Amino acid sequence: MIYTVECSFADPSSEAEWNDFYSLEKLPALISVAGFHTSQRFKALSRGCPVYLAIHTINGLDVLTGEEYRQKGGGNFARWQLNITDWHRNLYDDIGLAPAVRADELLALCASGPEPLVQMGLTPLAMQAVALEKFPARRWLARLPWRHAQFVETLEGVHLYTPMTDQLTSVRTVSPELEQ
């Protein structure tokens, strides 16, 4: 399943430190939790959406309610909590492993349907929300080369994200897709 976490951060003076914490400490802690397979963090280039997005591939909702998740990753934002805004979590049905987005690519997310992404020649993956906030109820995601970004920015309902980290993978996850 695909677990997404979205938020913005309200304190510019500590935002760089928070980003270091999230990217360098939190993501590695999360990927060490049994049931987490991939984790990658993004920053929005588009307006009208939370600034930060993390996408994880996990086994299911039980991973997020387990003790190991609580100890290693879930809810350890106490120091930053006052500045985390526009926070949303969703669990989407299985699309396989979340695609790894390289530094020369962008992630496109659309909640209005796959058509804008298909028109760009992309093959979007369809996701249906099944737990947590369940909003938006459906989303489509696709990777695209940076050179196509200017065409997508004008499409209604499409949000673009640049990767902040490489995709982390669990040592327990063995897949030919990860070796690309």
Tell me what the structure shows.
This protein has 180 residues and is an alpha+beta fold. The chain has one domain (2-166): Alpha-Beta Plaits (2-Layer Sandwich), CATH 3.30.70. 22% of the residues lie in helices and 35% in strands. It is built from 5 helices and 9 strands, in the order βαββααββαββαββ. The protein has helices spanning 12-31, 61-64, 67-72, 115-119, 149-152; strands at residues 2-9, 36-44, 52-58, 84-92, 105-110, 125-132, 138-145, 158-163, 168-169. Strands 1-3-2-8-5-7-6-4 form an 8-stranded antiparallel beta barrel. A hairpin with a 5-residue loop joins strand 6 and strand 7. The chain is globular. The protein starts with a strand and ends in an 11-residue tail after the last strand.
List keywords for this structure.
single chain; 180 residues; alpha+beta; Alpha-Beta Plaits; eight-stranded antiparallel β-barrel; 5 helices; disordered C terminus
Topology:
Blueprint: E1 2-9, H1 12-31, E2 36-44, E3 52-58, H2 61-64, H3 67-72, E4 84-92, E5 105-110, H4 115-119, E6 125-132, E7 138-145, H5 149-152, E8 158-163, E9 168-169
Antiparallel strand pairs: 1-3, 1-4, 2-3, 2-8, 2-9, 4-6, 5-7, 5-8, 6-7
Number of helical segments with 4 or more residues: 5
**Widest beta sheet: strand line-up:** 1-3-2-8-5-7-6-4
Any idea how many domains? 1
- Termini, distance in Å? 21 Å
Query: Based on DSSP secondary structure assignment, what is the total number of beta strands?
Result: 9
- Rg, rounded, reads 16 Å
